Amino acid sequence: MTHQEISYYRLAAQKLLETNSNSPQEIVHHLGAMQAQDYSMAKWAIGSRCNATEKEIEEAIDAAKIIRTHILRPTWHFVSAEDIYWMLDISGPQVQKMTISAAKKYGYDVQKLNQINAAIEKLLSGNNHLTREEIMQELNIKKSSGQDFLAAAIMMHAELEGLVCNGKMKGKQITYALLEERVSKPKTKLNKEEGLARLAKRYFESHGPATLLDFSWWSGFSPTICKQIINAIGLQLNSVAIENQTYWFGNQINKENNFKESIHFLPAFDEILISYKSREASILLEHQSRAFTNNGIFKPIILENSKVIGTWKRTMKKDHAKIETEFFNETESHKKAILFEGIKAFGNYLETKIVIE
Prior knowledge:
globular, 16 helices, 13 strands, 5-stranded mixed beta sheet, 3 domains, alpha+beta
């Protein structure tokens, strides 16, 4: 297997290679957790992997088939309802260390955070969905630049405790609701070893071929812990060594598949880049600064045959979406026409006309 093949197989593993009939929640379940701090773009991350429209994805989120919460790393993720509890059990405690540390800067220790959780539970009880600002008003935490960070830490702590998750959208505003009122708790519970094994298997099956350090970055667990997990489930995975680096992947990859031409306009923070510690398989080192910054801001990307060749942005108008592109290298006009065929799926997803400028 070559580095070129790695990027191709990742497309297949991430369900980007062929149009499929999976539902939005099935896509999220397959990938385990999908980074989702940019809500609009995160919905397209799901839509680019299935035939669902933006409206259908929003319906799945409002119906709590897909949960948006903080998990794995201290950022937003989409997680399927069937995965939310066991994933919180294993990853919540490690992320909480960061949120508790942040809250302490404002004089809020664990005891005070737990008292606030009790107040939040009363506020949201009975399927009462409130925005963060509404919750802070009820808690008498005044809005200011500093207090905004405190509010984020308070709500993240409540999420990681399994108390709250996203509620139904209130217009264009995101709300919070009680998790147990949206998703019933499972009758059985995984222990930590079982949960970590399930997380690793899910990652390598949906993101592989990938390395130990890739999994460590994505999961938020240390390389030492990740090595122990991989050793425990190694017989359930395939592996290949390239330049003294071991890449792990699931058994579902068909190495006999012929490569085929593909064009993808993918969203900012898409799993195809952000879920790997090393991204050289998909984007040349000299182009990386044009696709993402050192402080973790990722742009929407254009992939040709599994390689990032440029970036794009969309501006929503009344009756169309305006698309602007920036290619890393000079692109011939006739080739651009072929590339722009790849944006048609985005128009179908938005159910609107696409205008390329």
